[in-house]
Write a structure and sequence with these properties.
Elements lengths: L7 H14 L6 E4 L5 E3 L2 E2 L6 H7 L7 E5 L2 E6 L4 H7 L4 H8 L3 E4 H15 L1 E4 L6 E2 L4 E2 L3 H12 L4 E4 L1 H9 L3 H21 L2 H4 L5 H14 L4 E2 L4 E4 L20 E6 L1 E3 L2 E2 L2 E6 L5 H20 L6 H18 L8 H7 L27 E4 L2 E4 L4 E4 L2 E5 L4 E3 L10
Helix pairs in contact: 1-2, 8-10, 11-12, 12-13
Length: 411
């Protein structure tokens, strides 16, 4: 990746910064993700652990980073000959050049070396593993972190684990200039693609949601993105009232509103933009709902500045939404329950290496933070869903809408 925005200096600096935040003398061990089975002997497309990439820049599975003071090395797995035939061998020099970690050792040598380090210190700093099954999201976690922790404790019994997820989240929350450049590129690719496709005349040419989805993917790739940063949501009519509708299979019908929630991925950084457009001529009711969401978003943007606390921000936006829901005749009294019936999600989340990126929601916003701003109204019995989402950088003096070039409106 000689043409990458990110040099090894970026990853070296991130590792040094993490060491400065971690208890003095405690070794740090971080694992890459592993491949996940799709079926039989095939896998899903590999997706790297974002914090591991942030520290190394590597897209190789099953690599382990070890930092013990000045002793820094990568442990790479030993591949079966049959796998090397299909997947190729690991280029250790390329790993060293990309990451800036000079020492790259095989699994046997590396774990023998790590055993000595662990036995000496009796503790290790590493990101804690998520539960095997994450109930709230209905999904299984990548097992790599849990496997690493189990292996550490099997090698050196009673090793104390220090969780560094918060340290990594706080580091990744404040974007460096090169990260902002990658984010802006991802956002610009997304904006250009949507501006090109979501025109009144072009929308009429699609018959099903997946047809538009396919052209969005083509638009991202042709503009330099690696693909989607998350499963795209292209949902019209009643489908738009399911927040994460990713089947994208319904027929597009004139008279409906179409919600397009997508983002390109560029150099691992994610865009996340939502636009709602009409299929044909919008009705007066659709226009009224759209304008209500647009007004709430403009209000929300005025609150985004250094020092703002996201909990307070969300409360204020919900109250403003309550006013709009009353004006639309959807509720009589604005309470948490009545507002959330039609506006069931948060207004903002962190954006970066993941579309729902890590960050500390308890801390006031600081310059360098990138978040989304995405109010929405969903009226199931009217088959109307409206969401407007922009990507926002917190600056020294306020904020900057990074996705401002992406057109809005129902006209």
């Amino acid at each position: 990746m000689s043409d990458s925005l990110f040099s090894s200096d970026f990853f070296v600096a991130n590792r040094k910064a993490l060491q400065q935040r971690t208890q003095a003398g405690v070794p740090i061990v971080v694992t890459a993700n592993g491949l996940m089975q799709r079926g039989a002997d095939s896998t899903y497309a590999f997706s790297q652990d974002a914090s591991f990439w942030y520290l190394t820049g590597l897209d190789e599975p099953d690599v382990t980073l070890v930092m013990a003071g000045d002793d820094e090395f990568l442990i790479v797995p030993i591949r079966e000959a049959n796998r090397e035939t299909f997947d190729g061998s690991i280029d250790t020099q390329a790993l060293a050049d990309r990451s800036g970690v000079a020492k790259v050792v095989d699994e046997v040598t590396g774990w023998k070396r790590l055993d000595t380090i662990l036995a000496k210190h009796g503790k290790v700093a590493t990101p804690a593993a998520a539960p095997q099954y994450i109930q709230v999201h209905g999904m299984y976690a990548n097992p790599a972190r849990a496997r690493l922790i189990d292996r550490i404790q099997q090698h050196v019994d009673e090793t104390s684990i220090i969780d560094i997820r918060t340290d990594l989240a706080q580091m990744r929350m404040i974007k460096q200039p090169v990260e902002l450049k990658a984010l802006q590129t991802a956002i610009d690719i997304t904006s250009e693609t949507l501006n090109n496709l979501l025109t009144k005349d072009n929308i009429k040419t699609y018959h099903r949601e997946y047809e538009l989805e396919a052209d969005i993917f083509r638009g991202f790739r042709s503009r330099g993105a690696s693909g989607h940063s998350f499963e795209p949501i292209v949902a019209a009519g009643k489908s738009a009232c399911t927040l994460h509708n990713v089947s994208n299979n319904a027929q597009l019908t004139s008279g409906e509103l179409l919600v397009c929630d997508v983002g390109a991925e560029y150099e691992h950084y994610a865009a996340d933009i939502t636009r709602t457009v009409p299929i044909g001529t919008p009705t007066a009711r659709q226009k009224a709902v759209y304008q209500a969401v647009a007004e709430v978003q403009q209000f929300a943007l005025t609150l985004l500045k250094p020092g703002a606390k996201l909990n307070d921000f969300e409360d204020k936006v919900a109250k403003r939404m309550g006013v709009q829901l009353k004006s639309l005749g959807l509720i009589k009294k604005a309470t948490k329950e009545t507002v959330r019936e039609f506006f069931p999600h948060a207004t903002s989340h962190f954006l970066g290496l993941n579309v729902h990126d890590v960050g500390d929601y308890t801390k006031p916003l600081q310059p360098g933070v990138v978040i989304t701003c995405e109010p929405g109204i969903y009226i199931k019995n009217e088959a109307i869903g409206v969401r407007i989402e922009d990507d926002v950088l917190i600056t020294e003096t306020g904020h900057k809408v990074l996705s401002a070039s992406c057109r809005k409106g129902l006209s």
